[in-house]
Amino acid sequence: MASATLLKSSFLPKKSEWGASRQVAAPRPVTVSMVVVRASAYADELVKTAKTVASPGRGILAMDESNATCGKRLASIGLENTEANRQAYRTLLVTAPGLGQYISGAILFEETLYQSAVDGRKIVDILAEQGIVPGIKVDKGLVPLAGSNNESWCQGLDGLAAREAAYYQAGARFAKWRTVVSIPNGPSELAVKEAAWGLARYAAISQDNGLVPIVEPEILLDGEHGIERTFEVAQKVWAETFYAMAENNVMFEGILLKPSMVTPGAESKDKATPEQVAEYTLKLLHRRIPPSVPGIMFLSGGQSEVEATQNLNAMNQGANPWHVSFSYARALQNTCLKTPTPSRSSASTPPTARPPRPRRECSSRTTATK
Fold it and tell me: Would the keyword Acetylation be found if you checked this record's keyword annotation (predicted)?
């Protein structure tokens, strides 16, 4: 009771003050301040580039393997990892007959961006002549994420603006940055937020330098989890990514996405049909991806050529507001790489004595795996 009395005497107005308390004070002027974010000077060009890459019936050839990774592919066919052999293999890829009919963009490694083909022409010029937009890998790779559950983060933001300005001058018009999320390792809240923020900063810097950013948070296939768990994690990752991009004033009309398909873990006992993969993946897109995004260019993510193609085909059986296509590396290159040729099988000299000759039969392989 004493407490109640104290409250009444200390805070409640007396009856004689009731009328005064009902008087409305004169409104004070309200000052509203707004910060106008400067649009990229390349805004119109970014939209045009994104729409070109996301043109009907075409997709992206990912040939941005580092020199070390390219060396592993060459080693699989008995070739030494030399610049001449890398040049010959990349020449093979970009000169496949009819490539521009099915490929709208090619992601290059830094060496390739400045490299000439075997015949002396610039690789970026060979692509441009076929209506293929040259792109460039700009991240610096994955490193351990301190404080996480043995997870990774992607480095490369330091000096990115200067590097991208130089890449633009060299002919690149879009960029790629890959980070990963591991389901068996959590994923931890820290890893998801770090992936989203890093992608958002990269996207903003890229647009400021005239490059359309491909946003790629790859959800790794490792694990025994089912498709429902992949779907749950994918929703979280894409929600965080688009929130971070909005915070960084990224223009959604001038980006491209490179998501993983929603599949069970690679070690899962429950396998999914192409129809199930399409159902879950499209449901994810409808829940998380704004229709203003011009293109969804799926990565194959460790799937076989056949699996990746069947799943993508199932997604394109119905209408959706995006251009749903591919950004494949191994799913376009594997069969071509392993196709035997007389120049290699019958050569009496060691494989490193000369670079491989372009194998024209690869053009049919390229179109078959679209």
Answer: no
